[in-house]
Design a protein that fits this description.
Layout (H helix, E strand, L loop, with lengths): L5 E2 L18 E2 L20 E9 L3 E4 L11 H12 L3 E5 H7 L18 E5 L10 H4 L4 E5 L5 H6 L4 E5 L3 H14 L5 E6 L1 H9 L5 E7 L7 E3 L4 H6 L3 E8 L2 E7 L12
Parallel strand pairs: 3-9, 3-10, 5-6, 5-9, 6-7, 7-8
Antiparallel strand pairs: 1-2, 4-11, 10-13, 12-13
């Protein structure tokens, strides 16, 4: 069981007006381990962050004409994603991905390495939009929500053991506080950021990405595309350099990394 926590309110997607080293200002102690402390953690102490982005041939992340979410990359690219999850201590998405995809974010298509368990699932959900019945809040694996709002009694009552909520600081400060919390409190060394584009853009603009893997489905062109808003110049501006271009089935895979961080190996992940 993890320790009790407190809330220190914030927004993620707007300019910060508070220091991310704020102290806790309220506690929902009656819900035990579901609310945990994330106050005053050291700045700049964070996990290694690997960003994964999947786009169609024109750089879009979704097709509104499809209705429900669907997989558009190749089978081998899906295996790549699950290999990356398997070597990550935590996997992060935004609330939009939860609403659109209802993902599980578990490792399923490959075997977990010996001694490793399913990664912690992390949701950046500043408005607490994640529905209480979503997979991430109802299955048996651990999930951590970072939010700007104090969670409602209804949400907390729906959450069970292994589901946690913290409020952190606004904008970039909030992201840094969340990462510091994951590193210092939860021991997360490697975080995979899996979606969506708004969260990916925030990490890139904050220069919080250490490696990036971009999967482009060259044979897929969406009819009602949702642009990612991310191009090669965004990776360069984030301090990354492209170190490889490869293929995965019918897809193209670009690998980016910080100049001072060698790629783990030719077959990684």
């Amino acid at each position: 069981m993890k320790p009790l926590v407190a809330l220190a309110g914030v927004l993620f997607c707007f300019p910060s007006v508070f220091s991310f080293c704020q102290h806790i200002h309220s506690v929902k102690s009656s819900y035990g381990s579901m609310v945990r402390s994330s106050s005053s953690l050291a700045c700049l102490v964070r996990p290694i962050v690997t960003l994964k982005l999947a786009v169609d041939s024109q750089g879009a992340v979704d097709d509104l004409s499809k209705g429900d979410s669907w997989r558009f990359t190749s089978s081998s690219s899906l295996d790549l994603v699950h290999r990356l999850r398997a070597v990550s201590d935590a996997v992060a998405v935004g609330s939009g991905t939860v609403l659109r995809d209802n993902p599980s974010l578990t490792v399923r298509r490959v075997e977990l390495p010996p001694g490793r368990s399913q990664p912690l699932r992390v949701v950046f959900d500043r408005r607490l939009r994640s529905p209480w019945g979503c997979s991430l809040l109802q299955d048996e694996y651990e999930t951590q929500l970072f939010t700007s709002n104090e969670p409602s009694d209804a949400l907390l009552m729906a959450m069970e053991e292994g589901k946690y909520v913290d409020a952190v600081g606004t904008g970039l400060d909030g992201l840094i506080q969340a990462l510091s919390t994951l590193k210092k409190r939860d021991g997360i060394e490697h975080l995979m950021v899996e979606g969506g584009p708004q969260l990916a853009k925030a990490f890139l603009e904050g220069k919080l990405v250490d490696r990036a893997i971009v999967v482009r489905a060259e044979t897929v062109t969406f009819s009602e595309p949702v642009p990612s808003g991310i191009s090669g110049s965004d990776f360069t501006a984030a301090g990354l350099e492209r170190v490889d271009i490869d293929t995965s089935g019918e897809d193209t895979v670009e690998c980016w990394t910080r100049p001072d961080l060698p790629w783990p190996g030719p077959s990684w992940p």
